[in-house]
């Protein structure tokens, strides 16, 4: 059986892998509750990078439309997603696969960094087009809903969205913004 090779993706020449969005993502990932909620949503088909873009924009009073540049979605599909799938295919409980699994996890993290660099470039370029700034606490719920993989948000994921809305907006008290 012959497998057709895809052409390499073209990346912008002047990408910034270490950018404010990446640093925001790293800081948020240090919160175990954020990491756990993001991973639970990822298992439901959500993109963690979309969630983090939505949160970062909210902290800057900006709306997330949910529309992404084609380079971001293509990178996620062809690179980040494939590395994640390969990593998950390697059994955890097998000593022979530990090194491979760890290598794939490092490669997946680098792919996520480049995915966020592509997203950052788009966000930076569209900064002049953004609308009126709003309070981050009022916009985070809307941004997270815009980051959803579909308009129908299952009831089972709403607690994770509520937690993320609270944590990503820097609010740790109950009664934060609604994601319904």
What does this structure look like?
This protein has about 180 residues and is mainly α. The protein has one domain (about 20-170). Helix content is about 60%, strand content about 0%. The protein has seven helices and no strands. It has helices spanning about 20-30, 30-45, 50-60, 70-90, 100-125, 135-145, 160-170. The protein is globular. Mean pLDDT is about 85; it is low at about 170-180.
In short:
The chain has one domain (20-168).
Provide the descriptors you would attach to this structure in a database record:
180 residues, mainly alpha, 7 helices, 0% strand
Discrete helix count: 7
The average pLDDT value, as a whole number, equals 87
Quaternary structure annotation: single chain
Into which percentage range does the β-strand content fall?
under 5%
Topology order in helix (H) and strand (E) letters: HHHHHHH
Structural class: mainly alpha
Q: Percent range for helical residues?
A: 55-70%
Number of strands: 0
Separation of the first and last Cα atoms = 48 Å
Number of domains: 1
| Uncertain parts | 171-180
Q: How large is the radius of gyration? A: 17 Å
The main pleated sheet reads as: none
- What form results from the Cα inertia axes? globular
Strand and helix layout:
Layout: H1 20-29, H2 32-43, H3 48-59, H4 70-89, H5 98-125, H6 136-146, H7 158-168
Helix pairs in contact: 1-3, 2-7, 3-6, 4-5, 6-7
